[in-house]
From TrEMBL:
InterPro entries from the UniProt entry: YjeF_N_dom, YjeF_N_dom_sf, YJEFN_prot_NAXE-like
Residue span, YjeF N-terminal domain: 1-184
A Pfam short name: YjeF_N
Any single Gene Ontology cellular-component annotation: mitochondrion
Domain of life: Eukaryota
Molecular functions (GO terms): NAD(P)HX epimerase activity
Protein name in UniProt: ApoA-I-binding protein 2
Organism this protein belongs to: Tyrannus savana (Fork-tailed flycatcher)
Gene3D superfamilies (alphabetical): YjeF N-terminal domain
Length: 196
């Protein structure tokens, strides 16, 4: 199975499968935890940075699942970006998502984004690149190499200039597709993501 087709970066060979998953406190962070779990299932070596854990029981369950799979959690994010560049082959950005509000510059998110802006290894953003406005796009946010849109691309994806854009939306019920007039791509075989 190639569920991780969303991570086809040449810099992510199985011989060096280290990935840093940076999770924010809201829904996008929970998606990052699920992403880390899937990476682990497919023999990658994720490490999670999740500084502001949500009290939501479901998110706590996702955290517990990652801990039970022996996925390490960092206690702090190095501000020396070279340490991150040397230790990992990619960063998954699950800090802020479509639910982020304009006032999201609060800590710890602002410090995380300041660090991620200087990363030289590939960044894979989940749904909406952190720091971007969901409608108008980038304005001081990060510049990911890969964007994985969840359900359907958001308006801001029009401004995405990275190497690859995927959509993971096979799970959308037909009535939701019809209600929002979505025109989902064809998912070949058992693929859960498709390149746009």
């Amino acid at each position: 199975p190639r569920v991780l087709q969303a991570f086809p970066l040449p810099s992510l060979p199985r011989k060096q499968p280290t990935v840093l998953v940076v999770c924010g406190p809201a829904q996008n962070g929970a998606i990052g935890l699920v992403c880390a779990r899937h990476l682990r299932i497919f023999d990658y070596e994720p490490t999670i940075f999740y500084p502001k854990r949500s009290p939501d029981p479901l998110y706590r369950d996702f955290t517990t699942q990652c801990e039970k799979m022996d996925i390490p959690f960092l206690s702090y994010l190095p501000t020396e970006v070279q340490l991150i560049n040397d230790a990992y082959n990619a960063v998954v950005d699950a800090v802020l998502g479509a639910e982020a509000e304009v006032g999201e510059g609060r800590e710890p998110c602002a410090a995380i984004l300041a660090t991620l802006k200087h990363i030289r290894i590939p960044i894979v953003s989940l749904d909406v690149p952190s720091g971007w406005d969901v409608e108008s796009g980038g304005s001081g946010g990060i510049s990911p190499d890969v964007l994985v849109s969840l359900a359907a691309p958001k308006e801001c994806a029009r401004r995405f200039l990275g190497r690859q854009h995927f959509v993971a939306g096979r799970f959308l019920p037909y009535d939701v597709q019809k209600k929002f007039e979505l025109n989902p791509p064809e998912y070949p075989g058992t693929e859960c993501v498709v390149a746009l």
